[in-house]
Amino acid sequence: MTRPLPQNVFTTAPDWEEAAFTEAHQSPVPTSIRLNPFKPADIPFESKVPWSTYGRYLQERPRFTLDPLFHAGAYYVQEASSMLIEQAFRQIADTSKPIKALDLCAAPGGKSTLLASLLKEEDLLISNEVIQTRAGILVENMTRWGQLNTWVTNNDPKDFRRLDGFFDLMLVDAPCSGSGLWRKDPKAIDEWSPANVNLCKERQQRILADALPALKKEGILIYATCSFSPEENEQMVDWLVKEQGLTGLSLELDASWGVTETIADQSQAKGYRCYPWKMKGEGFFMAVFRKNEGNVAEQLWTGSSKTKADEKQMRQLTQLFQPFLNVPFALLQHQEMNYALHPEHRQHWAGLKSNLYIKKAGTALGQLLKDIVPEHDLAMSIHLAKEVPRVQLDHQEALHFLKKEAVQTDKGFKGWQVASYQHLGLGWGKWMPNRMNNYLPKSHRIRMDID
Description:
By secondary structure, this protein is α+β, with helices and mostly antiparallel strands. It is built from twelve helices and 22 strands. The chain has helices at residues 18-24, 68-71, 85-92, 110-118, 132-145, 188-191, 194-211, 234-242, 308-321, 349-355, 376-379, 395-402; strands at residues 31-35, 47-48, 55-58, 75-77, 100-103, 124-128, 150-153, 167-173, 215-225, 246-249, 260-263, 270-274, 284-291, 330-334, 337-341, 358-361, 363-368, 372-374, 390-392, 415-421, 424-432, 435-438.
């Protein structure tokens, strides 16, 4: 840490320790990842993140870009403190029935992949990002994670007002002043100011006020920031309770984890702070609420019924794509692409499509031209059937494939194959005599020197 830290700016934060704050920001940043439980792989680690089932600390930070397992979606590089969201879900969410969840500010995808790992197959996760370029990155990361029950949207929070009472759970990792990540990103210190903190607080209130109607009565809100400022944390807790009519909820956390429980001044509702001098992670804040009033919409408008000819065509297409997946699915056609949805989620398509801009729904299977042209999303799916042909690549071959180069052109392979590393898909290739075409999307390719 070379930049000087702003002095005495968080003295009103609960249990603030100025000297410990400064000392912690002179120490190395711990490296942590979260494993994908649906893509098991042999990944060495130093220790487990105690509040996360799949969180792991690494002894040192590798070059993740040069690890094929990263590209295969075997893990996500995530800051350890933010994995505390798992505890909120496990302790508060009602998992006795299918859950419809919204991650409102989801890019780049860390908390969405965390939620996806905890959801059942019949649950539905909508991961949203308002900024279009960041939404593209979100699609890439959710594609790597490989689940059928995750969708990605690109909408402003106010658009979700149209889904009145639809979601059982809403996660808002709100845009904030970012002071909790100064150790990871020293440049953020230059952008910090009390005025920016207040601006972030106003933006957080606007985002929440716009989106909260979409949370059903008795639904759960998980609110989080990576800020130390009380204005963005405990004061927001008071605002949510007093102005939005929510009830703060308590969590039972192991004292050995080092999480600081806080009490908001006016509402007496609880929040949970992660301080880098008390635990192995960065600055993070989380609070959990139940919504007391509002509507309950189990299903959105379903649209007009299909004709018998349409239904016949969909049955035929489903039969064509069925050999690619090892689970039942509902087939959907959208803009010449065929998608597989969980059968329970087909009923929500028309209503969500009419209200949101959907960038990814379920698993994109591919297009039907002269024959089936499979989509990258399918190669990454955790439900890819074992019968689908695969080419196993070694480490160096996998890196060349990920640079979008030809590999193993003289091994006698034929037709479409999933290029795999340690039995995990990396993408599609098409093998022909003496030639191989690499169908890895350009946006996924490695751009750095692999040698």
